[in-house]
Amino acid sequence: MRILVVHYSRTGHTARLAEALAAKARQRGHSVEIERIRTVRDWNKWLLPIPLLPLLPLLPFYLASARFRRLWHRLYYQPQQAIRPLAVPDVSGFDRVLLGTPKWLYLAYPVARWLDTVTGLTGRRVASFATFCGPPLEVFELEMLFEPLEARLRARGAVPAGRLAISSDYHPYFFFDEMRYLFRWISLKVFGRPLADFTLDGKVGRAEFERFCGEVLT
Ligand SMILES: Cc1cc2nc3c(=O)[nH]c(=O)nc-3n(C[C@H](O)[C@H](O)[C@H](O)COP(=O)(O)O)c2cc1C
Fold it and tell me: Which domains does the chain have, with CATH numbers?
């Protein structure tokens, strides 16, 4: 198969996952190209969360109600960020596209712009992969990221074809790694496992990686 691995990564974790996927695909005899989405200008880390703030007061409703989530995913504002010209502006020549994003509550802003910019998505099978700090919490991490992402893929005519979520055990906020320690605590509470287990080097993360490769690279 001809496979395109396209991703954005601000601090390197999604890029590492993308490289691992590309290496695995090559090992299996596929022809692989990599598109690294680059922004025109990097936003200051303190500006990035500002467009995401409207959800915070509504988070209890979001977590509690599937109906509210469906409504929110239709209505929420997805920020975008200007990206540099693409090496592969038309993906129609690929059998499979693997699209990678860090989770910025939803998909990362440069990836949202890529989805609106690229052509040739109609009928393409697109599998999504992501890194985020936390463990794979069903609603807060997986649904909040993949539902809007896949809705955007469908709106461009693509066929969502798989999901992979890996913890980076890294969070840029706020001053003393508070978010990272919070997610480490949540991981122990909810899954009874250290967050490290869900990273690419951890037992569960590695198994997920292999499952995804088995699904999307055959
Ligand atoms: C604006 C912003 C929002 C984020 N939101 C989440 C989140 O909702 N859940 C989470 O676990 N991590 C969140 N993170 C952490 C990143 O998803 C995580 O550090 C990711 O692995 C970074 O990937 P990268 O190194 O490829 O840029 C957020 C980071 C930023 C900058």
Answer: 2-216 (3.40.50.360)
